[in-house]
Amino acid sequence: MMQYISTRGSAPTLTFDEAMLTGLARDGGLYVPAEIPTMTAEDIAALAGLPYEEVAFRVMRPYLGTSFTDDEFRGIIERAYAGFGHDARAPLKQLAPGHFLCELFHGPTLAFKDFAMQLIGQLFEFELKRRDSRVTIVGATSGDTGSAAIEAFRGLDAVDVFILFPHGRVSEVQRRQMTAPSEDNVHALALDGHFDDCQARVKDMFNDFEFRDGVKLAGVNSINWARVLAQVVYYFTSAVALGAPHRKVSFTVPTGNFGDIFAGYIAKRMGLPIDRLVVATNQNDILHRCLSTSEYMVDGVIPSISPSMDIQVSSNFERALFDAYGRDGTAVAQLMDELKAGGFKVSQGALQALRENFDSGRCSEEETLATITRTLKHSAELLCPHSAVGVHVAEAHMGSSPMVTLATAHPAKFPDAVEKATGVRPGLPPRMADLYERSERVTRVENDLLAIETLIKDRIHL
Ligand SMILES: *Cc1c(COP(=O)(O)O)cnc(C)c1O
């Protein structure tokens, strides 16, 4: 029986589908599997040469318990990845001797969030139809998450999706990806304010229980366990392609909310021979500072050219802390209370446990641009600024195992930074070249909770 428990120790234990539809636990914690399933070296060796979808099935299946049958889950996976522009889904490219790039940007919105969001869209649709139910998904975005969510849920019957983004503060590609879809269950809302305002209004809606229950609010932010799980798969496909289980492989991951790298840690716990997992941060380096000094201190976001990693509080780090503290939910709850007052210090024992699994490094703005310039010159590869942060940090952590850096977005999603570094303005892939010509559909909203709630109640198809 596969069960999910909260990192803060006091919320009810749930099944996979319940944890997926719930998102955040009622005690404020994050759901994690009560036990991590493992794969033997033989199981891992047998993944060699299989299609991505089949590896996805074998890696994720044990986490689902009885929530879906094998056939149901195979169908969900097929539909989730059918819209990708590359048959390998997560292809590897060599950058230098021993250094590889795993390209995670061939999904419909050109960023790695498609891997998780496309799967979660299909999982939600299937489960809600079975329950003869609907939900209203509300999310805040600084760009990538919102477009990935809209792309994943557009046209589905059981879901309305509302995405709040800061008016005038997302890139043109990101905005158009949110405003171009014409399906009437999609609602892009441009809020007069900053990303923090968007996030605060979403939080307010979840705390307004009458509204929350009335519209059946659901969240798909990066703390949803199903999103983490979907990201475990490409660690397996990459490592197996480079010689696992017979050879160890290391990964460097451009990190913000710690979801992507935490998936790598889960892969390792499952038995994948991962040597090092390297957290790469931009100038917003709270995670690098914490792993270096044990102090997790919030001190404000400085906007960077890798905006999807500009974070103050890295939400999924709580899951790593839970394990580092020996799965003591009370200890984690206490740290999170201290965080509300500005920060906390990780205990010596927990820090040691974290360092057994994670290395870290930081990349400045100048280093990001220099890495984009250098990588084009030496490897004929155009990197997005997030992937460049990863490549820079990976180069400082090369060891005896092959290194895989996760390339988290397509360069065309961040054309200004790439052009500044290389003089080359990256073009969109041909399959979405018409994005700039498509008409846009967006509603301007004031930064006012009641106005937003009223609009949502008017629009939904409950
Ligand atoms: C979201 C995002 C990241 C950070 O991933 P986390 O799982 O939040 O650590 C990095 N790069 C890009 C392009 C992203 O969209």
From TrEMBL:
Pfam families: PALP, THR4_C, Thr_synth_N. Residues 3-81 form the Threonine synthase N-terminal domain. Its cofactor is pyridoxal 5'-phosphate. Pathway: Amino-acid biosynthesis; L-threonine biosynthesis; L-threonine from L-aspartate: step 5/5. The keyword Aminoacyl-tRNA synthetase does not apply. Residues 102-333 form the Tryptophan synthase beta chain-like PALP domain. Its EC number is 4.2.3.1. It catalyses: O-phospho-L-homoserine + H2O = L-threonine + phosphate. One of its GO terms (molecular function) is pyridoxal phosphate binding. The modification N6-(pyridoxal phosphate)lysine is found at K113. The keyword DNA repair does not apply. Keywords: Amino-acid biosynthesis, Lyase, Pyridoxal phosphate, Threonine biosynthesis. It is an enzyme of class 4 (lyase). GO terms for biological process: threonine biosynthetic process. Belongs to the threonine synthase family. NCBIfam families: thrC. This is Threonine synthase. It comes from Donghicola eburneus.
